[in-house]
Structure formats: C-alpha cells, structure tokens
Amino acid sequence: MIVDAAIERYLLSLAPERSRIQRTIENDPPAAIVGPLEGHFLYLLAKINDSRRILEIGTATGYSTLWLARALPPDDGHIVTIERDPGRAATARANFVSAGYGERIEVREGDAFAVLPPLEDRFDFIFVDILRNLSRAEEAPQLYEICLSLLQPAGLLVADNVLVDAQVIMPNPAPRVQGILEWNRRVAGEMEATILPLRDGIAIGRKTNY
Ligand SMILES: C[S@@+](CC[C@H](N)C(=O)[O-])C[C@H]1O[C@@H](n2cnc3c(N)ncnc32)[C@H](O)[C@@H]1O
C-alpha cells in the first residue's frame, strides 16, 4: 500500500456509507478488493463520465461492481463483469440479486482472454482488476489492446495495481511487472491519461485516438 496507513484511516472516516453486502465483503474479503476509498473513486469516475455500459475484468464477489452499479442511472445502464473462479462468480451473482441488480449486472464466468474477444458490446467504462494476476510480460499489453477495441470513443479505461507495490521502479522487474510497465507506457502515451498513487496505483485513460 502506497498511501500512509494513518492517512488512509483518516480518509476512511470520511468515506460514504456502504450497503450491507459491501460491508460483509469488506469484513471478510475473498481477494484483494478495492476497498471503500477506491470504490468510491470508481463510482465518481463512472458517474462523471455518465457511464451506461460498464465492463469489469476481475469481479471476485462483486464489491467493486456494486460501487460501479451505484453510478448507473436508475432506469438505464448495464454492467458485464468477468470472473474465472466459479465459486466467486456464483457468490457475486447471488450478491447482485440480493442488492437488486440481478437484471443489470451480468457475470461472465471464464478467463478474460477467452471471454473478451467475442464480446460484441462496446463500453464507455472499463475497469481492469486482474493486472496483478497476470504472469507473462506480453499479457498486459495484449489485454490493453483488447480493452481499447472494446472501448467507445471518449470512454474511460481504468486499471488498478499499476504500481505493483512500487515494483515498477525496482531494477530487473519480473515479467508480470514488465507487462504492467508497458501498460502504463501505452496508457500515458496513447490516451489522455493520469496515474494516481492511490493505494497500489490507478491508471485512468480516456480514449481519444479513434
Ligand atoms: C483483485 S480481485 C478483484 C477484486 C474486485 N474487483 C473487487 O475490488 O471487489 C481479482 C479477481 O480476478 C480474477 N481473475 C484473475 N485473473 C483473471 C482472468 N484472467 N480472467 C478472469 N478473472 C480473473 C481472480 O479470480 C480474482 O477474483
């Protein structure tokens, strides 16, 4: 975590209320979830961008998805979220039904590299939360290309963990980190972009070259 723990505690004291399901996930997370500060930030980005077609890659049990769902207008919008772990995908589906989003959030179970290419939808907001799970250097740039092809003009591509516990500035980066370095170079060089040192780093790019 890059943010000082005491600062994070202070900011958490100001975080907005979460639903019962989100609180339950916060207390016993199935994986590294975004948490309230980053979740709220994702919500704001999606809301400011008036996002209606949202794609999430890396659902876990739906904590971040529920933040994104809050940003949808009451009568419009849809989220597709991808998770390869069958148990987590099933729990996420149940959570979405309990939260009243059963009809608006679609969980696609499977590996993102298999699920994404055939998708015919185009999205105005894509949130990528699997960069830390990749292993080969070529995977992150490959995922970046797929995401760009699925993003609407002026859409936002948001990726978590782009600082990889500061491994991006260490000598001899591991293949996974080399891939994330390339992700950051592409986002910074090809999109209207910023990389924020919130938690483990968030890269935000707006698609402008289309
Ligand atoms: C960091 S967790 C997601 C946390 C979630 N976004 C949240 O904040 O609540 C990453 C999830 O992505 C899944 N995952 C990792 N690699 C994947 C891949 N290639 N395709 C689909 N899911 C993947 C993992 O099983 C894990 O549940």
Please describe the topology of this protein:
Layout: H1 5-13, H2 20-27, H3 35-48, E1 53-57, H4 63-70, E2 78-83, H5 86-98, E3 105-109, H6 112-115, E4 123-128, H7 139-150, E5 151-160, H8 175-190, E6 192-196, E7 202-206
Could you explain the architecture of this structure?
It is a single chain. The protein is α/β, with parallel strands linked by helices. It has a single domain (5-206), classed as 3-Layer(aba) Sandwich (Rossmann fold). Helices cover 40% and strands 20% of the residues. It has a seven-stranded mixed beta sheet with strand order 3-2-1-4-5-7-6, with helices on both faces. It is globular. 40% of the residues are buried. The mean pLDDT is 96. The protein binds S-adenosylmethionine. S-adenosylmethionine (SAM) binds at residues 31-34, 58, 60, 63-64, 82-85, 88, 111-112, 129-130, 133.
> Mind describing the biggest β-sheet?
7 strands, mixed
Instruction: Quickly count the helices.
Output: 8
Distinct small-molecule ligands in the complex: S-adenosylmethionine
- Can you count the beta strands? 7
Percent of residues in helices comes to 40-55%
Mass-distribution shape: globular
Which architecture does the CATH hierarchy give at level 2?
A: 3-Layer(aba) Sandwich
Short description:
This protein has helices at 5-13, 20-27, 35-48, 63-70, 86-98, 112-115, 139-150, 175-190, and strands at residues 53-57, 78-83, 105-109, 123-128, 151-160, 192-196, 202-206.
Features:
binds S-adenosylmethionine; 210 residues; 7-stranded mixed sheet; alpha/beta; Rossmann fold
